[in-house]
Amino acid sequence: MTEAAQNLPLLLTGAKRWFEDALEASMRAAGEQPVSSAQAQVFACLDAEGTTVSELARRIGVTRQSAHQAVHGLVAMGLLEQIPDPASARNRLIRMTAEGTRVHHRAQDTLAVIEGVLAERIGRQATTALRDALTLPRGEPPVVEAP
Fold it and tell me: Which among 62, 78, 117, 145 is least surrounded, fewest beta carbons within 10 Å?
């Protein structure tokens, strides 16, 4: 019996998980506090001047409640802080603390090394082609009918 080829979304999910597992293990080995995948996504979506929880939820593609839970955990760890939003008395902005900035930079540096390991394993040309392909504009998601 021949196994069906994995679809592209499943392959992309597996690749993302590989990076997340490598980052988590590397940061843990370096003595850093472990953060969940959802918490790591919060860091990736923050603006330097701060971002509202609602905007974080939109950028990550989760509910406001899920984003709030991730933020709350990071605030408790001392990596993020909430400050008043100068544009709105009703909102609070989420931004990195000095410790959060340090950890974020370390994670970014670690990801660069992990990407280098991937390039060693699959080839620099393949890694560059993958990065190039994933940064091309895809346009709006299509609505299609299966044949």
Answer: 145
